């Protein structure tokens, strides 16, 4: 029993570290100040999921909708902490919205539904006069790529940070890692796949093994089985198979030393989009030495989001893609 408690604690620790419509069941408004700007904060439930919206007093009409990353437990999702990371953007006049999705685990399907639902609710209830953009990290990167491809009439651009673009490859790799019982052997396997040890954000190689097992279990539960038995279910939540027909400007950012979702996954997605004839709508940027949504990677968000907005609204092309 004590061993199982320790195992759960490791899982929760690794998940928490990873985190950096239409009935309104509850609703609250809070006004607070970011510098000289007063911000209206709206919280509530929509479709069974908690949401948080922040609208600054100097609002330019533009809205950024955030897609959260993977969390084994819903209790590990902190909407306020995520919103705070976007305070600089909000302070400059852009509104922000995010949904908890209402469930934990590998919940890309729920993320697509709840994020689009929240977007429409904000548009219908507030004066959104500008363009709407999507930003997502890790599992949220897959979520926003698929939403943007599905609803190009709603969203003007998509920014994916280290997205899970291939659920089959993710399952296979994490299953392989989870089955390696020896820490040294597992560390060598991670290094051989281009990651660093221990893979960020897991504190130890043993915790990384636990994370991989948790990821495998949650992905199989969401897809109704393994990739061998349910390949189409995995493809439906993989941008590599389901969202290469993009219709809006899209940016992909990935660290070259990502141990959780290898850099090659984003390269494969980029190449698939180009092969589908949409190379003019995608840009791919690598962060040399970057790990999975660590500081060097997520610090790309303000720069790339600004470039994405200028691309979508003013036709100013961003820098050419890095050579994958």
Report on the structure:
- By secondary structure, this protein is of the alpha/beta class.
- It has a domain at 1-130.
- Helices cover 44% and strands 19% of the residues.
- It contains 13 helices and 9 strands.
- The protein has helices at 2-18, 79-85, 87-91, 108-125, 139-150, 167-178, 183-192, 205-223, 231-236, 239-242, 263-275, 295-298, 301-314, and strands at 24-34, 37-46, 49-56, 63-67, 95-99, 132-137, 157-161, 250-255, 282-287.
- A 9-stranded mixed beta sheet has the order 1-2-3-5-4-6-7-8-9, sandwiched between helices.
- Helix 1 (2-18) packs across helix 8 (205-223).
- The longest helix is centred in the middle third of the chain and has 19 residues, at 205-223.
- The chain is globular and about 55 Å long.
- It starts with a helix and ends in a 10-residue tail after the last helix.
- Residues 1-31 have low confidence and may be disordered.
Keywords:
alpha/beta; single chain; 44% helix; 9-stranded mixed beta sheet; 324 residues
């Amino acid at each position: 029993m004590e061993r199982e408690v320790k195992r759960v604690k490791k899982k929760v620790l690794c998940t928490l570290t990873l985190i950096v419509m239409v009935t309104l069941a509850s609703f609250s408004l809070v006004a607070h100040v970011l510098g000289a700007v007063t911000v209206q904060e709206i919280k509530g439930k929509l479709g069974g999921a908690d949401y948080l919206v922040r609208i600054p007093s100097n609002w330019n009409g533009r809205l950024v909708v955030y897609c959260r990353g993977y969390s084994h437990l819903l209790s590990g999702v902190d909407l306020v902490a995520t919103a705070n990371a976007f305070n600089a953007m909000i302070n400059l006049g852009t509104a922000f919205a995010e949904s908890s999705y209402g469930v934990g685990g590998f919940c890309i399907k729920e993320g697509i539904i709840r994020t689009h639902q929240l977007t429409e609710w904000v548009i219908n209830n507030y004066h959104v006069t500008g363009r709407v953009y999507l930003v997502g990290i890790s599992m949220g990167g897959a979520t926003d790529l698929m939403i943007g491809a599905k609803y190009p009439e709603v969203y003007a651009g998509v920014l994916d940070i280290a997205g899970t673009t291939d659920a089959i490859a993710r399952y296979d790799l994490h299953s392989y890692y989870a089955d390696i019982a020896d820490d040294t052997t597992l560390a060598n396997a991670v290094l051989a796949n281009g990651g660093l040890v221990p893979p960020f954000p897991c504190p130890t190689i043993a915790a990384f093994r636990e994370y991989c097992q948790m990821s495998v279990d949650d992905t199989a539960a969401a897809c109704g089985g393994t990739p061998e038995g349910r390949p189409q279910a995995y493809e439906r939540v993989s941008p590599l198979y389901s969202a290469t027909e993009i219709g809006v400007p899209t940016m992909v950012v990935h660290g070259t030393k990502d141990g959780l979702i290898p850099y090659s996954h984003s390269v494969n997605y980029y190449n698939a989009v180009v092969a589908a004839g949409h190379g003019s709508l995608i840009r791919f940027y690598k962060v040399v030495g970057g790990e999975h949504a660590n500081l060097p990677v997520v610090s790309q968000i303000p720069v790339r989001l600004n470039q994405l907005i200028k691309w979508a609204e003013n036709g100013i092309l961003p820098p050419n893609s890095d050579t994958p």
